[in-house]
Amino acid sequence: MLAFNTFYISAGIGFVSEKRIERRLTTILAADIVGYSRLMSSDEAGTLSKLKTHRKELLTPKTTEYNGRVVKLMGDGTLMEFGSVVDAINFAADVQRSMKERNESVPEDHRIIFRIGVNIGDVIAEGDDLYGEGVNVASRLEALAEPGGICVSGNVYEHIKGKVDIGFEDTGAQLVKNIPEPIQTYRVMLESAIPAVNTSSGKAKRSLLWPALAGSLLLLAVLVAALFSQSLWEDPPSEATTLTAVSDKPSIAVLPFNNLSDDQNQEYFVDGMTEDLITDLAKINNLFVIARNTSFTYKDKPVVVPEVARELGVKFVLEGSVRRIGDQVRINAQLIDGASGAHIWADRYDGNLADVFALQDEVTGNIVEQLQITISPDEQSRRTKRDTESTAAHDAYLRGWQFFRRNTPEDFVKAIPHLERSVELDPSYGQAWAALAAVYWIAYRNGYAWSIIVNPDKSNGVSWYGALNKAEANLRQAMRNPTPLAHQIESQISLEYRQYEQALREAERAVGLNENDPAGHLAMAWAQIFSGQAESAITSTEFGVQLDPQFPGSHLYARGVAQLILKRYEEAANTLERALAFNPENRAVLMPLSVAYTHLGRTEEAKVALEGYDEFLLFFSPGIETYLTRWPFRYEADIRHLGEALIKAGLCCNTDLETYLEKLRKGGTLE
Fold first, then answer.
1. Residue 136: its pLDDT value, please?
2. Rounded to an integer, what distance in angstroms lies between the CA atom of residue 76 and that of residue 242?
3. Rounded to 5, what percent of the chain is helix, strand, coil?
4. pTM reported for the whole predicted model
5. Taking 60 as the threshold, does the pLDDT of residue 196 lie above it?
6. pLDDT digit string (tens) for 552-596?
7. pLDDT, position 199
8. 246, 174, 165, 251: which is closest to 206 by C-alpha?
9. Buried b (16+ CB within 10 A) or exposed e, 157-166
10. What mean pLDDT value characterizes the chain?
11. Residue 213, CA distances (Å) to 33, 133, 137, 275, 578 in order
12. In terms of CB atoms within 10 Å, which of 69, 227, 257, 258 comes out highest?
């Protein structure tokens, strides 16, 4: 989830002392649960109960038996390490065979099924965590595995052939994203012990795989592993991360279109077109549209449409491809019934790059027609209205947006010239101005060292406060032709200045322009939390989770803070722990979590969480004012509620809290 969608998210960058990097060759196993979101949605309690039983009776004993260890949680999956490749394969085969037996008496749509990938590779070890290409490849293999199956790399097969009573099927060399050479893959044949069989010739190439791997903050990884580590071997987050019912609205997920261009550098263009289609459809109030972040979790993965539809709770799925050669563009699109997998409609659109907006309008218009949705004249106008009519400005924006979405200081620096070029080509391009404002606003909120990043000699960089000035200047330009993103940022900056009514109005405007944008509901939740409307904020986060079921961390974070303000401490602690499990990089969660632990009498855990939050502050001195200034509550009772818990956790003394509260009273910003 992008930083502007959270309010206070960690910087995503830290300083690591210079020391020798530990590398080693090891066996890595990656696993996940097939259709986990669907299972949690249909029967959360039952799913959790089954997982606990499997953990106790099967997974934990087998991990010990085969000398493995759980490294970390990755989304709804787990990363493991084995000292022996034989142990890793025997473990995987034993677990999959046992799970097949355990599932025999379970209805098909309630079965817990694993997918497993195994690789031997060079890794970087940092504490208990592992990074590097060896880990990346294991994760890619896991996604290529069939439900209930095991996929291994060629080097695993070469090491293990003849050493285990298991057969292997040669599934050919697979080209995957960000790995320069194709990966030779094999399917473990659990049914029989036979030699490897080559079945790759004449077989359609599988889709590319582009998994999202987190872990940029090494220090936090150790902390989170110690405090809140969760895996398939432990209780997973109990939050239902998918939509349980989409009311009576037609509902749709737009999967990332495939890039069929000869030039793979056109990926930004194809991704941008997918996002534009999502945005256009999301402007229709009578249509429920899954958010971009969740849709893109399926990028470059082989998908089964009915399974995707069940996981996301939608009735329809849109797939497609884009080929761009020079100025020529071809779009293929297929609308698919989520229940049956049958094609409802398909078409091809050819045109010049200058016609790309018209092509997109034609695609969305046909979808609306096929779904038989009635839209108002205002919605029709809003759907067809473009933020820019300049294809060159839009192209520059897409290039910048590609870097912006990576959400690192270095990528932000790369995004800026493209976004500046976009507004130079079209000075009225509101979304591009809003993206520039977002870059500088996030830099300010997260304390990015812009003077170091932009210019190493510090002679011409952007200061911390300079980032805020630039955010506000770009936002003024964006507000000439406002978009939901502009209103979201305006709401957050208004909270920075404790302008609560303005923050609420701007969040309302963001939601009004696009009810299907989870970021708008999240901006509303934070405005409500800090304005003293915590109960309403919980409802806003529910909308966010429904729209973005694969990225619930930011919404859970806001919900946990709302529960904390309402003094529902047990709920708050559970919710904030889940938020941290989904997004370990958001160390801002640690401060309210420390408060919740303190009120529950979990003193030691509160202190550890508080220490982790100290690391998040980076350039700031730890202290009550530093902590609470970043939480602009409207009412003294809410600030005192947090402050007194922080003092109890060992942060400072009562005098510091009273001094800070008196300062706010004198400034007239406290009620």
1. 83
2. 13
3. 55, 15, 30
4. 0.61
5. no
6. 888 999 999 999 999 999 999 999 998 888 888 788 888 889 899
7. 39
8. 174
9. bebbeeeeeb
10. 79
11. 17, 11, 11, 21, 18
12. 257
Q: What is the pLDDT of residue 178?
A: 56
**What DSSP state is assigned to residue 58?**
I
List, as own/partner pairs, every contact residues 538-547 make where C-beta atoms lie below 8 angstroms and the sequence separation is at least 24, other chains included. 538/562, 538/563, 543/518, 544/518, 545/239, 545/240, 545/241, 545/518, 546/243, 546/246, 547/288, 547/289, 547/290, 547/291, 547/294, 547/516, 547/517, 547/518, 547/521
What's the confidence (pLDDT) of residue 627? 76
> Across residues 302-311, what is the average pLDDT?
85
Across 338-382, the runs of DSSP E, i.e. the strands, are: 343-352
> Which of helix, strand or coil describes residue 269?
helix
Phi and psi at 251, nearest 5°, equal -130, 145
DSSP SS3 for 237: coil
Amino acid letter at 171? T
Segment among 121-135, 226-240, 266-280 with least mean pLDDT: 226-240
Per DSSP bridges, beta strands 77-82 and 68-74 are antiparallel
Place of tokens 């150790």: 222
pLDDT higher than threshold 80 for residue 77: no
DSSP annotation of 256 reads P
Eight-state DSSP code of residue 1: -
CB 122 within 8 A of CB 24: yes
Place of tokens 């490897």: 196
Token pair 């100025």 is found at: 327
Q: For the chain, how big is the Rg over CA atoms in Å?
A: 25
Q: Is the pLDDT at 628 greater than 60, yes or no?
A: yes
* Type of residue numbered 130: L
Contacts of 652 by beta carbon, 8 Å cutoff, 6+ apart: 623, 624, 646
Interacting residues of 300 by C-beta distance below 8 A, sequence separation 6+: 176, 177, 207, 208, 209, 210, 256
Task: Say if residue 493's pLDDT is above 90.
Answer: yes
CA 59/CA 105 separation, integer angstroms: 19
Query: Sign of torsion, CA 274 279 283 287?
Result: positive
Phi then psi dihedrals of residue 604, to 5 deg: -65, -45
Per-residue pLDDT reduced to its tens digit, 339-380? 888 888 888 888 888 878 888 888 888 888 888 887 777 777
Spatial separation of the C-alpha atoms in residues 240 and 222, rounded to whole Å: 26
CA 636 to CA 393: how far, in whole Å? 47
Neighbours of 24 (CB within 10 A): 12
Which pLDDT belongs to residue 361?
A: 83
Q: Where are the beta strands (DSSP E) in 338-461?
A: 343-352
Mean pLDDT of 100-122: 90
Length of the chain as a residue count: 671
SS3 state at 244: coil
Task: Report yes or no: 313 and 245 within 8 Å, Cβ to Cβ.
Answer: yes
The residues facing 32 across adjacent strands are 77, 115
**Residue 165, pLDDT above cutoff 60:** yes
Give me the pLDDT at residue 6, please. Answer: 39
DSSP state of 460: S
As a whole number of angstroms, the distance between CA 54 and CA 628 comes to 43
